[in-house]
Amino acid sequence: MKLLSFKLGIHPPERKESTEHLKVEKAVEPKIVTIPLQQHIGAACEPLVKVGDIVKLGQKIGEPQGFVSAAVHSSVSGTVKAIAEKPAASGGEVLSVVIESDGNNEIDPSIQPKGDITSLDPKEIINIIKDAGIVGMGGAAFPTHVKLSPPPDKKVDLIILNGAECEPYLTADHRLMLENPEDIIYGLKAMMKATGVKNAIIGIENNKMDAVKVMHEAVQKEEGIKVAVLQTKYPQGAEKQLIYACTKKEVPSGGLPMDVGVIVNNVATAAQIAKTIKTGMPLIDRITTVAGKCIKNPKNLLVKVGVSIKEVIDQCDGYKEKPGKIIMGGPMMGLAQYTDEVALTKGSSGVIVFDEKEATTPDPSNCIRCSRCIQICPAFLRPVQIAENSAHNMMENAEKYRALDCIECGSCSYICPSKLPLLHSIRVAKRSILAKKRQQKG
Amino acid sequence: MDEKLIVTSSPHFRDDSTVHKIMLDVIIALLPATLAGIYYFGMNAARVLFLAVITAVITEAVIQKLLKRPVTINDMSAALTGLLLGLNLAPSVPWWIPVVGSAFAIALVKQLFGGIGHNFMNPALAARIFLTISWTGNMTDWRAPGVDAVSTATPLSFVKGATEVPNAAPSLFDAFVGNIGGSLGETSAILLILGGVYLVYRGVISAKIPLIYVGTVAAATLVYGGFDLYFMAYHVFSGGLMIGAIYMATDYASGAITPRGRIIFAFGCGVLTSIIRLFGGYPEGVGFSILLMNVAAPLIDKYTSPRVFGEVK
């Protein structure tokens, strides 16, 4: 079989063996959930409930503000205990609704099956997705209804489902593909109907050949849907790289996938869309991989949005040794947490815990100009030169070296033998350049 | 929770390669040729190598102490510079030649410009040229291998100004295995290539640079010699071409860093070496060629920036 891939990139250790054969387990019912009213870029939700209110499972508790925003729902039934600033997965604090569960999981009366995709029209499907607060579940949590509503001048003719799961450790999407291929296909067909797209590709890395097989069988009778086997390489699941692997088209610099006629969504997002259409249940839970050296019993857990990292880790029998670093997401692009009280969000694909040794960043030394970062950068940039200019506060130069084209995959920092925090420096440059651009505009 | 967690920006995963490992790999790659040099030229060679390496390491430590910088002799880069310089010297040189050379390489070419990664020229090569220009007699006092150590000419001096290999010249086989007069480490082409294969296998260097460099010299000498394969092979396997193409032109800090820039860099080295060898005043041109291309590297990088993903040119 011919393997599809993007150009360049790296191949970090996969470290998936601790969880890839473990069935998804339903997590223990939480006693308390802390649901952030902002779980992605874009506008935060306005709370719809007050302290003391009784809420039901699936009840909308946060109203989206503006188009790029997604509704937030209660993942338990119980009483609102507080609406307050709580530690956020992205660092800092975020306004969150704290709900004490009554343990009954009493379902909100508004939760009703939405019918079948054959009877729903495109507009209805998009509204269902919007009302259910469905966002990209690969990590960025970008509102899905926005992705599925391209402006009329952009002609979209392909949907790519991202089952690459190129981050080390993570196996949540892998297990989902093995255990629930029907929902993934159903959700994909809903997206295709919503956008009027006739063709779809499901991209899966070849370190998950069992998932390839299952998905391949699942699409046998479906028209226009294919499974593409991707080379196991990082960042194969990055949006632009995945599009290139599947179509050999490059998303123009500064552009969006729709500029080459493509919409990319995660397999978990597709499965959630199916679940919402079939049962009416909004996005209130997700599969997350809990792994890493410090976890006693690594697991794939179906967890409710709003559960704390600590509670999730407790269900994996706690820490094996003193934790050094807790990462929400994968180790390449995930976010390091300052406390395990942070709540899981719709985008939490994994909780990875490193011991102190793994967590300690090595001391950087002089760049020896080996140019490995240039040889592997999947955006074809010269990371070291952007980073050098950034470190000397020469942001115009950093922009000339195309800092804004960086996809922040972290491959440069990974490969650097001098252990330079290249991506960190590039991020500093990007923030500074963007801030200046906003200033000029405003 | 009570424990303090480490919070950094992503990625949280790092490759296990280090500068130390890279330098060590190059030293390992040079070991066969180094041992061959000692085998052919005896204690003289061992003495030159020892003095070159030890002076390089001491100079680096002293300068870093004086400048109150962290002492980085553990990264092995100074030892490698010393070894490369030693391999570039005639085994008969007086004791102070490797000492002065290594001190010059580390102090002036490397540390004064900011230490590892900041040298715009290959330190060992710059030192060799500095020594050759300053003490030409000592630096070109070539001896034949063996205990008698009689004065001899290098293979390249036999083909200087010629378009074919004269009968008096050493055999190609001797040049290939290193049984000839010359610098103590550059004589054995086969062992240098062996080390090069190791470096490519370990991912330390790309095979492109030596292949293009040597290929260019091969093509030029083939045409110049009227398609005399023996003449071409003689040029390719003798002199400093192998050590230069595999170990010096591939030096990270002083070479080009863009993919296309590296090709131009290697090609330029090949062209300059051919011109100097075939038309210039010296029998050998590898050192000068690489240094000239070192100086041109930033300019080459500037004009060979790679196309960014999604960029339409």
Q: Could you explain the architecture of this structure?
A:
- The complex is a heterodimer of chains A (442) and B (313).
- Chain A has 442 residues and is α/β, with parallel strands linked by helices.
- Among the domains of chain A are: 134-279, NADH-ubiquinone oxidoreductase 51kDa subunit (Rossmann fold), CATH 3.40.50; 372-441, no CATH class.
- Chain A has helices at 122-131, 144-147, 172-179, 181-195, 209-218, 239-247, 267-279, 309-314, 356-359, 372-376, 383-391, 395-400, 411-415, 422-441; strands at 25-26, 32-36, 46-47, 54-55, 60-63, 72-73, 78-87, 93-101, 158-163, 199-205, 225-230, 262-266, 285-291, 299-304, 323-328, 335-337, 350-355.
- A six-stranded mixed beta sheet of chain A has the order 1-14-13-17-15-16. In chain A, strands 2-8-7-4 form a four-stranded antiparallel beta sheet, with no helix packed on it.
- In chain A, a hairpin with a 6-residue loop joins β15 and β16 (335-337).
- In chain A, α1 (122-131) crosses α4.
- Chain A is globular and about 65 Å long.
- The model of chain A has no long low-confidence stretch (mean pLDDT 91).
- By secondary structure, chain B is mainly alpha-helical.
- Chain B has one domain (19-303): Ammonium transporter fold (Orthogonal Bundle).
- Chain B is 59% helix and 0% strand.
- The model of chain B has no long low-confidence stretch (mean pLDDT 88).
- Chain B is built from 14 helices and no strands.
- Chains A and B meet through β15, β16, α13 and α14 of A and α1 of B.
